[in-house]
Amino acid sequence: MSQANLNNFIIKIIDRDIASGLHKSVRTRFPPEPNGYLHIGHAKSICLNFGIAEHYQGQCYLRFDDTNPVKEHTEFIESMKNDILWLGFHWSGEIHYSSDYFDQLYSYAIELIHKGLAYVDHLSVNQIRDYRGTLTKPGKNSPYRDRSIDTNIALFDKMRRGEFKEGSTCLRAKIDMTSPFIVMRDPVLYRIKYVDHHRTGNKWCIYPMYDFAHSICDAIEGITHSLCTLEFQDNRRLYDWVLNNISLNVYPHQYEFSRLNIEHTIISKRKLHLLVSKNVVTGWDDPRMPTIAGLRRRGYTAASILEFCRRIGITKQDNNVEISALEACIREDLNESAPRVMAVINPIKVIINNYPVGYKENIMMPNHPNKPEFGQRKVTFSREIYIDCTDFRENNCNQQYKRLILGQQVRLRYAYVIEAERVEKNEQGNITIIHCSYYKNSLNQTLDDSYKVKGVIHWVSAIDYIAAEFRFYDKLFSDHNLASTDDFNVSLNHRSLIIYHGVIETSFLPLLKSGKINYFQFEREGYFCTDSKDCSKLQPVFNRIVGLRNNWLAKS
Ligand code: ATP
Ligand code: MG
């Protein structure tokens, strides 16, 4: 379905670098911090980095940026690997970890101290912030800034040996406290954390900061083009400063592109983590989550996510993409590939009084209206059937309503024309049964329909069906722009999950048992998939991926 979208400014830069002979081959990297699950924004970065490597027959490394052991877990590493492979990408060679380079990073820190370009500071975190100044106010020097190189070497060694308390001491670059770029005001390079690391155990109690580690890891790995999101634009100065001041003599270049934001959702591991930890959702793979795992469980195919990334492209413009752009991609994919089945989400019983008691017949139906190769199936028709309660009205004054109305006719999909004659109600006044009659000669006259009924509705036999659960999802948030919100409680949509108990035709059972097909179009209802966690042969559970049209309430 999708091919990488190669019409972007980064491709032009790489073409130029190859044409000028600056690089003979291209090497990119995807460097997630394993502090959560990958989300759709990461998919954009994955498509870009792996797509570039494929296009230039170069390499793309997967590097876990594991420099903060407090928030990082192996569960996240495993899920990230799984998600990348599921999207269809393969990293070059072994998996890399920033922690692979802790020894080298440490020795480059010592090199900077030796050159008088880094110092050990004892200001507290708050003091460092106060001393840093603001965009309009220059920072001021720490009182510890000008101690001798030997003193700094000795103090850094003490830091490494665990002789200072966490938060009391750090290593900082000595750059310029008055720089117009706040990142250049003596950024912290190393801090103390008495936390075991998932790979290096208790070997270290000092851990390098992102900017210091990232540039050096890129250089050690021979990354040619280091691609990241726009919020790191200013950090490029620090990235270059580090590489220009150590003796590695490799100079990858950082380029920035805009982050993906999607309306009505938050795309940030940190914020998604809050949704999980506060039980707003059932987990990282909750089908409402914009994580790859959530989208997969919801029923999005890898092809649809790649196609979405292709369509949004890569630019430097800030954007807030409509969720419907993503939905269009899965709809187009499944329109081609999903077999059609009938399911009634809100069943109400219909009794066809002039249909013979105890009789039933098999009606052949195509599994895809335009694809004969999908074959046909037999569906039981009987005297009692279910239709959706929204497909019936006692009185109707809306000309647009083309379903069953008391005293009028409607066609049952691939079956007979019926007419509603009377209803039974319970004590609360709710309709419990719709009594109808059918036209014996009307069976499946789709082409030349002499009955001229206005509408077609779907149905399921009431003697041959499977009960099923249907989970309908809606956006998690009602606000459309959440990029800068932290207090998402205000805008939580409390109806983001609605569960229905309905019925589905039994012809679907062999497909469910085979486990081969998980995606369906339930006629007139939308695209659904079996829920990978909760669906069983005894109790089918379906997630509605997306409606048939943009407005899911609009049935045909
Ligand atoms: P988060 O805030 O979700 O943790 P991050 O940028 O801190 O995002 P990383 O794990 O560091 O996440 O991201 C790995 C790569 O994915 C980075 O190169 C980053 O720029 C890119 N990336 C992260 N979020 C997005 C996004 N929304 N759109 C595009 N690329 C993204
Ligand atoms: Mg992050």
From TrEMBL:
GO terms for cellular component: cytosol. Its EC number is 6.1.1.18. It is an enzyme of class 6 (ligase). Residues 456-531 form the tRNA synthetases class I (E and Q) anti-codon binding domain. Residues 338-438 form the Glutamyl/glutaminyl-tRNA synthetase class Ib anti-codon binding domain. Residues 26-335 form the Glutamyl/glutaminyl-tRNA synthetase class Ib catalytic domain. GO terms for biological process: glutaminyl-tRNA aminoacylation. Keywords: Aminoacyl-tRNA synthetase, ATP-binding, Cytoplasm, Ligase, Nucleotide-binding, Protein biosynthesis. It catalyses: tRNA(Gln) + L-glutamine + ATP = L-glutaminyl-tRNA(Gln) + AMP + diphosphate. InterPro entries: aa-tRNA-synth_I_CS, Gln-tRNA-synth, Gln/Glu-tRNA_Ligase, Glu/Gln-tRNA-synth, Glu/Gln-tRNA-synth_Ib_cat-dom, Glu/Gln-tRNA-synth_Ib_codon-bd, Glu_tRNA_lig_a-bdl, Rbsml_bL25/Gln-tRNA_synth_N. One of its GO terms (molecular function) is ATP binding. It holds the Pfam family tRNA-synt_1c_C2. Belongs to the class-I aminoacyl-tRNA synthetase family. This is Glutamine--tRNA ligase.
